[in-house]
Task: inverse folding
C-alpha cells in the first residue's frame, strides 16, 4: 500500500455500483470517496483534493460529460475515467476529446480499471 494513497472520487447515482467501485478501488490500494451525484461532488470541499475521478456518464440532474465541462471551466483538470453502459462511439469520442483519461463500458473487468488508474498515477508522479 502507498504511504499516502491517491484519493479517488467515485461519482455514480447507482448506490450498489458506487459502493462496489469503492471497494474495488480500496482493494487496489487507493482511498475512495463516494458521491451520489455530480452536484454533490461540485459542492464538496474534497473536490480539490481528489487525484482522479471515476464518473458514470448517465446520471440525473447533471451527467458526467457536463460535470467534465464544469470542472474544465473552473480550471480543475482532475483526470477522469468515465464508465457507462452506453456504447455510443460519438459520446466516447467527445469525452476523450475533452480530456478524459479513460472510457470503460459496463460491465468492465477490474484489470481495465486498474490499468487506467495506474496510467494516471504514473503520469502524476
Result:
Amino acid at each position: 500500500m502507498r504511504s499516502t494513497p491517491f484519493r479517488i472520487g467515485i461519482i455514480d447515482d447507482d448506490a450498489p455500483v458506487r459502493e462496489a467501485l469503492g471497494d474495488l478501488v480500496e482493494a487496489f490500494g487507493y482511498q475512495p470517496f463516494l458521491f451520489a451525484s455530480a452536484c454533490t461532488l461540485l459542492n464538496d470541499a474534497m473536490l480539490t483534493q481528489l487525484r482522479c475521478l471515476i464518473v458514470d456518464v448517465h446520471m440525473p440532474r447533471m451527467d458526467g460529460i457536463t460535470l467534465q465541462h464544469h470542472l474544465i471551466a473552473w480550471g480543475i483538470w482532475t483526470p477522469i475515467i468515465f464508465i457507462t453502459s452506453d456504447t455510443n462511439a460519438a459520446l466516447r469520442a467527445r469525452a476523450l476529446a475533452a480530456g478524459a483519461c479513460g472510457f470503460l463500458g459496463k460491465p468492465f473487468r477490474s484489470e481495465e480499471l486498474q490499468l487506467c488508474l495506474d496510467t494516471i498515477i504514473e503520469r502524476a508522479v
About this structure: The mean pLDDT is 92. Strands lie at 7-11, 31-35, 52-56, 80-84, 102-105. The radius of gyration is 13 Å.
